[in-house]
Amino acid sequence: MDTRDPTMHDRRRRLPAALLATLALSLPAASQTAKPGPETLLYIDLATHAMPGMPDMGGLGKLAMGMFGGGRNNNAYGMAKHPAMPGQYMDVTLRNALNPGAPAADAVPPGLRLGNSLPLLAPRPAKQEPVERGLPQFDGRPPDAAARILVYWGCGAEVRPGQPKVFEVSSKDGKVTVSGSLDGRYAPDRDPRTGPDAALWPNEKDRRSVPDGASIAGEHRITGERVPESLKFALGEAQDFMPKIALERSGDAAAGIALRWQPVKHARGYFLHAMGMQGDALVLWSSSETADAGMGLVDYLPNATVDKWIREKVLLAPATTACTIPKGIFAGQDGAQGAMGGMLQMIAYGPETHLAWPPKPEDPKAPWDPEWNVRVRTKSTAMAMLGMDFGAMQGRDDATGEAEAPRQDKPSAKKLLKGMLGL
């Protein structure tokens, strides 16, 4: 597995070739003759996704899931990376250099409730679409346009001094003007390559969805032509699907949106990100204590990166159970509620596990040439509309804790979905 820090990798690429050659000659002989990594790699990505405010509504909910690509037999590889509807998602990738792209099978435990095994198949080559002729011709100049982005950060009802950071870009008569920056961290790109030399699940032969409440814990074995006989392993509770995020809210955009959640089992840290409009400006907010736009952090992260960014106060510690979006930043003109179309994302980072055979020896000087490596990544995510009452706190007054009168000006999630479906 490639666990190198991406920033170190970028710096090393910029070193002059002569310096790299000098460094190579100065390395110990043992390092120069080190064997490459295992020839057989298995990647398992697990995701649990919730949409607070969109409850399970029986047949209506199933119809909606089907329309948005989450139906029982409409699963697709990659949905663990970007879940669409509530549920549990799993992507399996086998990269076997001994027999690239050959079919294989993953014998899975009964708790997964998907039969005895899952077929692993190479993806079909993408079809080349014909290029249309007679497309409009452009002179290469960007069109006249302007955009303004306001960046806020930090939990708390009050907007902090020095906020927002303003990023503006405009184009006039072909000249582009940029003011400010959108600096921020991004999750390192560590997704497995999925070309014709890989075998994947789900695939065109098996598009079943993982049932809610299913478990991947138990014994696994990968079989196929030229797959190592030793490729069998056991996953425990810590490598299983994480629980859904139980997210609750109170308050409103004008006074501040208070968010609370139950601790998510096995979560190593949390992060929240929201975006919406304020007049003609796009507003971005993150739960980071530092000025980070947060657009690239709702993704799997290595354990060491989670720990590092918690120390740097970019992510919230696992003991955190509340965060407030500052008042007014998602409100409309004159403080009116303007966040109905704004979206909130939250992630609970789960553990990342690496298994290898034979196991790595305790003695760092001992030779080690593993036959295979398995990587299991886990996360739990939630997405919600900022202007929707989506939690049990929606009927309580923030200051007194007393019940409020039901609000009649906001449709329920069920009515909203019925309207979207025309029912």
In a few lines, what is going on in this structure?
By secondary structure, this protein is mainly beta. It has helices at 6-13, 17-26, 29-32, 59-67, 303-311, 413-421; strands at 40-50, 87-96, 104-107, 117-120, 145-153, 165-172, 175-179, 199-201, 218-224, 232-235, 247-252, 256-261, 269-278, 281-286, 322-325, 343-357, 372-385.
Output the number of helix runs.
6
Task: Kindly provide the radius of gyration, computed on alpha-carbon positions and rounded to a whole number of angstroms.
Answer: 25 Å
Structural class: mainly beta
Number of domains as seen in the coordinates: 1
**Would you count the extended β strands for me?**
17
**Could you tell me how far the N terminus lies from the C terminus, measured between alpha carbons in angstroms?**
50 Å
Helical coverage, percent range: 10-25%
Mean pLDDT: 81
Name the strands of the widest sheet in spatial order.
7-6-5-14-13-16-17-1-2-8
| Overall geometry | globular
Biggest sheet features: 10 strands, mixed
Question: How would you characterize the overall build of this protein?
Answer:
The protein has six helices and 17 strands. The protein has helices at 6-13, 17-26, 29-32, 59-67, 303-311, 413-421; strands spanning 40-50, 87-96, 104-107, 117-120, 145-153, 165-172, 175-179, 199-201, 218-224, 232-235, 247-252, 256-261, 269-278, 281-286, 322-325, 343-357, 372-385. Strand 13 (269-278) and strand 14 form a beta hairpin. The chain has one domain (36-125, 182-421). By secondary structure, it is mainly beta.
